[in-house]
Specification:
Layout: H1 6-17, E1 23-26, H2 33-42, E2 47-51, H3 55-67, E3 74-77, H4 84-87, E4 96-102, H5 117-130, E5 131-141, H6 146-160, E6 167-172, E7 183-189
Parallel strand pairs: 1-2, 1-4, 2-3, 4-5
Antiparallel strand pairs: 5-7, 6-7
Bound molecules: S-adenosylmethionine.
Amino acid sequence: MNLDGILPFARKLLEKTVKEGSLAIDATIGNGHDTVFLARLVGESGHVFGFDVQQQALERTAALVEEHSLTGRTTLFHRGHEQASASIPEKWHGRISGAIFNLGYLPKGDKSIVTKPETTIQAVEQIFSLLQPGGLIVLVIYHGHAEGAVEKDKLLAYVKEIDQKTAHVLQYQFINQVNHPPFIIAIERR
Ligand code: SAM
C-alpha cells in the first residue's frame, strides 16, 4: 500500500513539528512506544512529558524508555492528561511542539480502563493552549468498543466547532474498511 497507514501517518505528522530540542507530550503513554518515538525526536536537548492513569503503563513505559537509554529526556506523570496544564512547568507553556493521544484501552492491559470523552476534551483544550504556533495535537481514535464510539462522536462534534482562525483541523481516515478502523484527527495551532 502506498498510502500511509494510520500509525505511520500519525508519526509523519509529529515529525513535521517535533525536532531536536523540542518539547512534546505523550498524553496516553500506555506501553511507551510513542514516548520512545517522541524522546528520539526531541534529542538530548528536548523533553517529553507523558501521562497515564495506570501504574502498569507507567512501569512499562519507564522500562522501555530505560531500555533505549532515554530516561533523562522524559518525565512521566501518574495522572490524567486533563491535568496537563498544572503538571507542565509554566515556563514551558506556549512552547510545546507536538502531542499525541492514542485513545482507548491499554493493549495487553485492563480493557475496562479507557479514555473518556469529557477528560479527553479537557486535555485537548489544555494542551492546545500549551502549543507554540504551528504546534500539533494528533489524536488516534479507536471506536470499535462501546465507550470508544461515544468518545469518537463527542470529539468530532467538539473539533468541528474549533474556530478556523485559531486552528487547522484535519481528519485522516480509510472510509472503505470494515470493523471500525482507527482514524486520525490532527489539530494545528495557527
Ligand atoms: N500510546 C500507547 C502505546 O504506545 O503503547 C498506547 C495508549 S493506550 C491505547 C491508551 C492509554 O490511555 C491506556 O494506557 C490508558 O490507561 C490511558 N488513559 C486512560 N485515561 C487516561 C487519562 N485520563 N489520562 C491519561 N491516560 C489515560
